[in-house]
Amino acid sequence: MQTAWGWPIAIYLFLGGLGAGALLIAAAFEFSGKRYQYDFCPTALVGATVPGPLLILGTLLLIFDLGAGRREPWRILYMYTHFSSVMTWGVWLLTLFIPVALIYGFLEILDAFPATRQWLKSRRWLRWTAFLWNLPLRQTKRIFAGVGAVLAIGVATYTGILISAVGPAIPFWSTWVLPFIPIPMLPVLFLVSAISTGLGLTVDLAATLALGSVEQRLKSLPWIHLALIGAETLLLGMMLITALMAGGSAAKSAQEIIAGSYAIVFWFLIVLPGFIFPFVVHAYAIGLGRHSPVSGVGSGMGIVISGLFLRYLILISGIPAAL
Amino acid sequence: MPATISRRRFLGLTAAAGVVAALGLPLLRKEASSAEERPKARYALIIDTTKCTGCGACIEACRQRNKLPEGLSYIRRIVKGNERNPWFLMVQCQHCANPPCATVCPTHATYRREDGVVLIDPRLCVGCKYCMQACPYQARIFDEKRGVADKCWLCLPWVLGGGLPACVEACIPGARIFGRADDPQSEVAQLIASGRAKPLHPEFGTEPSILFYIIQEE
């Protein structure tokens, strides 16, 4: 297995996906008009406010994991300069995404709690933010939601491109979508997983905790979850089968995941909480016509935890090519 | 009378100039993008695995010359074959013409010289370890003290001065042959031209340009 990247990078990949996914859900609520159907929309509030801080935390983890760049932070500036490196794309994406997400979250707070405006006006040291709250609020928020959503797709996808770009060095990471389709699977898998964890955080967890129930707000929630779980099962299954068929160290990685040293992580920390449990909960909700708050929160937490361990598993199970 | 400039504006301009200079430094590096543009390597280092006994003298000599901490070396020993008939593959930086470490490096720290030697500029390296992941030969180590990636540099200062890489000097059975690849009369050029010495794992697509191996057919 590779040893250069460990938990800090795994948590960063997870936070990047979670933040990007949450912002995508908030933007979907914004543009579909669902955000404005009720006085208070916890999904949009959490989906807009959480990505900025999450990505800041992730970026701090990245910097913490650097060698010389941690001790001499000005070296981080060099990372903006080499455009053949996927890591340079990532640095640019983070630099653009974080402020856009922070402003979007700020505007969403202003929209959800109009009293914030008075509070800001009463604070001399916060008056410089006036250029933001004097703009037409909803239109400005829409612009940031739209730009943020585009950047979010970039962030979620690039986390997969970053590690699949090592090519023949760690064959499992660059496993193709299918043996005859030369597109790496990880960017696709990470994007779907990002949306799934974002939905789990903003709807299953946040909306259920804030409202006690989510049915009236998003009737199609169970169906969306079943579709996402189905898609992830298909993508992950295809990736493992393609890796097994490819042979060599890619197959070894897949074997370790399915029935080797990483099998416990895979089956009990990814498949059970993130696939089987939410599938049962949401299939049950379809049959019953409603969610119990406990199962909603449980499935949200399961999906989020599973997303974290998926990033960790993919990282740790990367076995360098045999020489 | 000189133009007046406020202190604040001066400091701002100085900071801006500093940032531009910091970003400009790595951008000065020229890069080849297509196969035709890639310069041919001037040197070649051929390892004859049929002579290598796996004694590790090269590993130790490399460690000493490059002042690497105990247990670290730019050369790695891989045992091949079976228990009754083992042979040894000594792996170090292959100095690829299409080095993936340089492609993935976010800072221009890794680059290939005109003479084919791939180097790391430790002043530019941030220590992200992306290059270590991208090298299919796993030829890179991490210098924990300086926080930068490190690897075989072909003992460049010695070679430029007419000397030999430490591993070649130290090799007891004479399994390492070093010479000028650009001189068609040299032993290394003839071994490569005859096809006896081959690049290791050419299917990786990185086009090793200095290291070549003589491997007995099994």
List the helices and strands and how they pair.
The complex is a heterodimer of chains A (323) and B (218).
Chain A (H helix, E strand, L loop, with lengths): L6 H26 L9 H8 L1 H15 L2 H4 L14 H27 L2 H7 L8 H4 L3 H28 L11 E3 L2 E4 L1 H26 L9 H26 L1 H12 L3 H26 L4 H24 L7
Antiparallel strand pairs in A: 1-2
Chain B lengths: L6 H21 L15 E6 L8 H9 L10 E6 L4 E6 L8 H5 L5 E3 L5 E3 L9 H5 L6 E3 L4 E3 L5 H5 L5 H5 L5 E5 L6 H7 L17 E4 L4
Parallel strand pairs in B: 1-9
Antiparallel strand pairs in B: 1-8, 2-3, 4-5, 6-7
Specify the overall morphology of chain A: globular
CATH superfamily of chain A: Formate dehydrogenase/DMSO reductase domain
Radius of gyration of chain A, in angstroms, nearest whole number: 21 Å
What is the CATH class of chain A? Mainly Alpha
What would the CATH topology of chain A be?
Formate dehydrogenase/DMSO reductase fold
Quaternary organisation of the protein chains: heterodimer
Instruction: Report how far the terminal alpha carbons of chain B are from each other.
Output: 84 Å
**Domain unit count of chain A:** 1
Shape of chain B: globular
Main beta-sheet annotation of chain A: 2 strands, antiparallel
* Largest interface (C-beta under 8 Å): A-B, 36 and 45 residues
Low-confidence stretches of chain B: none
Structural class of chain A: mainly alpha
Mean pLDDT figure of chain A: 94
Low-confidence runs of chain A: none
Order of helices and strands of chain A: HHHHHHHHEEHHHHH
Q: What is the spatial order of strands in the main beta sheet of chain A?
A: 1-2
Strand content of chain A: under 5%
Counting DSSP E segments of at least 2 residues, the number of strands of chain B comes to 9
Per DSSP, the total helix count of chain A is 13
Count of helical segments of chain B?
Answer: 7
